[in-house]
Amino acid sequence: MRVTALRNGEAIEYSARILVGADGENSKVRKTLGVQTRVKESPNQYLFMLIGPVDSIRQEARQYFARGKMVGLYPTLKSTYVFYYLPKRQLNDLRSRGVESFRKELGEIEPEVSDCLDNLHSWEDVSHAAPMRVDAENWVVDGAALMGDAVHALDPAWAQGANLSLQDAVALADTVERCFESDDFSASALRPYQLERWKQTKFVQDQSERTAQITTTENRFYYWLGKRLIRNTGADPGLMKIALSASSGLTNHISMRDRIRFFI
Ligand SMILES: Cc1cc2nc3c(=O)[nH]c(=O)nc-3n(C[C@H](O)[C@H](O)[C@H](O)COP(=O)(O)OP(=O)(O)OC[C@H]3O[C@@H](n4cnc5c(N)ncnc54)[C@H](O)[C@@H]3O)c2cc1C
After folding, report:
1. Considering its fold, how many domains does the chain have in total?
2. For residue 1, what pLDDT is reported?
3. Torsional sign, CA 205, 211, 212, 218
4. Mutation test residue for ligand 1: of 25, 28, 149, 209, the one with most atoms within 8 Å of CB
5. What's the pTM value of the predicted model, to 2 decimals?
6. Cα distance between residue 126 and residue 188, in whole Å
7. How does residue 216 score in pLDDT terms, banded at 50, 70 and 90?
8. 166 lines ligand 1 (CB under 6 A)
9. How far does the chain reach from its first CA to its final CA, in angstroms?
10. CA of 48 to the centre of ligand 1 (A)
11. Residues 56 and 163 in one domain
12. What is the DSSP letter of 143?
């Protein structure tokens, strides 16, 4: 494999026995290799920001849901990480109302953060991202492998994207080690990596998408289902354990019986 990289406008040629593309959801490596891929854009938009530390949110996170809106507040060592979900088509409206009006809204949702919003001076202090689902048919070709969001970007509802990428790295490192031993970097020698990661990845992608469908929604029926899911899970330690182990990457399936229990 030969790669030409640009550094300060200067072209540098690299060559290697194997090329690993870990360049995110819009992966140029994936596109250059011509891997068949399905890309689905989410109707959701997320805003992210860091605000000052909030005394009452030092020990636990808080997350609020309403129809078509969700806010999460998570303590970090010296600040509070805030994410704010809204439907993508409402983003321009929100921005045109100004950052002062947004600060006011955050303060109304969680009055305890009102005094910690001083560092939100302008929209420059707020970043945003729209999730995308990527399903690549092949994660490996002769002499190259793709990993992480480049082949399986997913909705952030389960907060598993980075974890999946790290697990890919571990599995791929094992496979590549065997490729060096056998001096074979063909697609078939690299395939065990994809097979090892496939089931869990598809499980997490599908379930994250379903969770997003009922938690970040304007639809009344899905919103009602989402509230049921949250209420039932919170009331049953058995369901909490299933949800926790699935959303922490410790399992790759939930039985149909358990899926139904979340809703009835
Ligand atoms: C709204 C949102 C919230 C999320 N929340 C969570 C969460 O709570 N927990 C979690 O685990 N995951 C979360 N994720 C997912 C997580 O961010 C990704 O799954 C993870 O970052 C994927 O890692 P990656 O290394 O595959 O890709 P990336 O993190 O995208 O890294 C790709 C890297 O390649 C570089 N690159 C790309 N093209 C080039 C190029 N041509 N030349 C040089 N460098 C290049 C990029 O600059 C980037 O540094 C979230 C995602 C979104 C959209």
Report:
1. 3
2. 80
3. positive
4. 149
5. 0.90
6. 45
7. confident
8. no
9. 54
10. 14
11. no
12. T
Ligand 1 centroid from CA 83, angstroms: 16
**Per-residue tokens: 94:** 């929100």
163 close to 143: Cβ distance less than 8 angstroms: no
Distance from residue 181's CA to the centre of ligand 1 (Å): 31
Residue 90 lies in a domain: yes
- Residue 219 and residue 240: Cα distance in Å, rounded? 25
Closest residue by Cα to atom 8, ligand 1, is 159
Q: Is the CB of 110 under 6 A from ligand 1?
A: no
At residue 247 the predicted structure's pLDDT band, cuts being 50, 70 and 90, is confident
**119-162: per-residue pLDDT in tens?**
899 999 999 999 999 999 999 999 999 999 999 999 998 889 99
**Is residue 180 in some structural domain?**
yes
Ligand 1 pocket, 193 CB below 6 A? no
If pLDDT is split at 50, 70 and 90, which confidence band does 2 have?
confident
Here the tokens at position 58 are 């030092």
Residue 5 lies in a domain: no
Residues in the chain: 264
Residues 204 and 259 in one domain: no
Instruction: Report which protein residue has its CA nearest ligand 1's atom 33.
Output: 23
Is there a single domain that holds both residue 105 and residue 81?
yes
CB 51 within 8 Å of CB 116: yes
- Domain around 240: 217-264
Q: Are residues 152 and 35 in the same domain?
A: yes
